[in-house]
Design brief:
The protein is built from 9 helices and 11 strands. It has helices at 47-55, 98-102, 104-108, 114-126, 142-154, 172-188, 200-206, 235-239, 242-256; strands at residues 3-16, 19-32, 36-40, 62-67, 70-71, 83-86, 160-164, 192-197, 209-213, 220-225, 263-264. A 7-stranded mixed β-sheet has the order 6-7-8-3-9-10-11, with helices on both faces. Strands 2-1-4-5 form a 4-stranded antiparallel β-sheet, with helices on one face. A hairpin with a 2-residue loop joins strand 1 (3-16) and strand 2. The model has no long low-confidence stretch (mean pLDDT 90). Bound molecules: adenosine-5'-diphosphate. Adenosine-5'-diphosphate binds at residues 14, 16, 21, 23, 41, 43-49, 216. Adenosine-5'-diphosphate (ADP) binds at residues 14, 16, 21, 23, 41, 43-49, 216.
C-alpha cells in the first residue's frame, strides 16, 4: 500500500501563564492509503492535539510530518490534501434542512457546482437519506444524523477522514451499529481514515490497525494490526470471535499498564 502520511518524532506542549503542559512526546507512525487507523489512549492524553497537528491547526514544536514523502510540517495536511473532519458532535444546524446541512461544507468552500450538488444528492440516495432531505435534524434518529454528518464530510471528497470520537454522543447500543455503518461506508470508498477514540472495543472492531498512546504526554506504546476472518459489517459477530478477545486483551494490557515498553508489530 502507498504511504500517505508519516509523523516523525513529533512533540508538542501547550504554554500559558500557569506554565507548560506537555501533550505529545516523540510520536512517530505512518498511515497508508486506504487504511483505517484507530488511535486510542486515556482521556486527556493528547489525542485531539495529535489530530490538530495532522490537520495543520497546530504546528509541532519538534519533529516532522510528511505527505507522500513531501515535507509538510508547518503547513499541515490541508495544504496538500483534502481533509474531512468529523467532530465529536454532529453539529447539524436545526434551522437548516438535511440537504442544506450536507451542502454546508461545499458552500463554505464556494464549491457548490451542479456536479457537486448531484454528487451530494447521489450520496443522500445511496445512504438512505434522500426521502429525509427536507426534514430538520431533530426529526432524524441518531444513526441517520451521523450518516448526514458523514455525507456532509464526504461531499467535499476528502482524501483523509479525521474522526474525533464521532460516536461519543450516541448511546452504546446505537453506537455499535452506527460506528460499523460509518466505517463500512468509508471502507467502501477506499478512503483513508484516522479514528480517535477512548473506546477500545470500537477501535478493535473498526480499525485495520490500532495505535495505543500512553497517558499525557502521549507517546506511542504499541501499534497492532487487526485482522478478522469475519466480515466487518457484523460488529456483534466480530465481538464474539476468539480473534477479537485476543486483540482486546492484548491492547487492554498495554493501555492499562503504564510501565509497558514501546514496541511495534
Ligand atoms: P484528549 O483528546 O486525549 O482528551 P487533548 O489533546 O484534548 O487530549 O489534551 C491533552 C492535554 O493538553 C490535556 O491535559 C489538556 O488539558 C491540555 N490542553 C488541551 N488544550 C489546551 C490548551 N489550549 N491550553 C493548555 N492545555 C491544553
Amino acid at each position: 500500500m502507498e504511504l500517505l502520511l508519516s509523523l516523525q518524532d513529533v512533540s508538542y506542549a501547550y504554554h500559558n501563564l500557569k506554565g507548560e503542559t506537555p501533550a505529545l512526546s516523540h510520536i512517530s507512525f505512518e498511515v497508508s492509503q486506504g487504511e483505517f487507523l484507530a488511535i486510542v489512549g486515556p482521556s486527556g492524553c493528547g489525542k485531539s492535539t495529535l489530530l490538530s497537528i495532522i490537520a495543520g491547526l497546530l504546528t509541532p514544536e519538534q519533529g516532522d510530518l510528511f505527505y507522500k514523502g513531501q515535507y509538510i510540517t508547518d503547513r499541515g495536511t490541508d495544504s496538500v490534501m483534502r481533509v474531512g473532519y468529523m467532530p465529536q458532535r454532529d453539529h447539524l444546524f436545526e434551522w437548516r434542512t438535511i440537504y442544506q446541512n450536507v451542502i454546508l461544507g461545499l458552500e463554505l468552500r464556494h464549491e457548490l457546482t451542479p456536479e457537486r450538488r448531484d454528487y451530494v444528492l447521489s450520496l443522500l440516495d445511496e445512504y438512505g437519506l434522500y426521502p429525509f432531505r427536507d426534514k430538520k435534524p431533530s426529526e432524524l434518529s441518531g444513526g441517520m444524523r451521523q450518516r448526514a454528518a458523514l455525507i456532509r464530510t464526504m461531499a467535499i471528497r476528502p482524501d483523509l477522514f479525521l474522526l474525533d470520537e464521532p460516536f461519543s454522543a450516541l448511546d452504546s447500543q446505537t453506537r455499535l451499529n452506527v460506528s460499523a455503518d460509518i466505517a463500512q461506508i468509508i471502507r467502501s470508498t477506499d478512503k483513508t481514515a484516522l479514528l480517535i477514540t477512548h473506546d477500545l472495543p470500537e477501535a478493535v472492531t473498526l480499525a485495520d490497525r490500532v495505535l495505543v498512546l500512553s497517558k499525557r504526554p502521549a507517546c506511542v506504546k504499541r501499534e497492532m494490526p487487526i485482522r478478522f476472518s469475519l466480515d466487518r459489517s457484523d460488529p456483534l459477530g466480530i465481538r464474539n470471535t476468539a480473534e477479537y478477545r485476543l486483540y482486546f486483551n492484548q491492547l487492554w494490557e498495554v493501555l492499562t499498564n503504564e510501565q509497558s515498553e514501546i514496541h511495534t508489530g
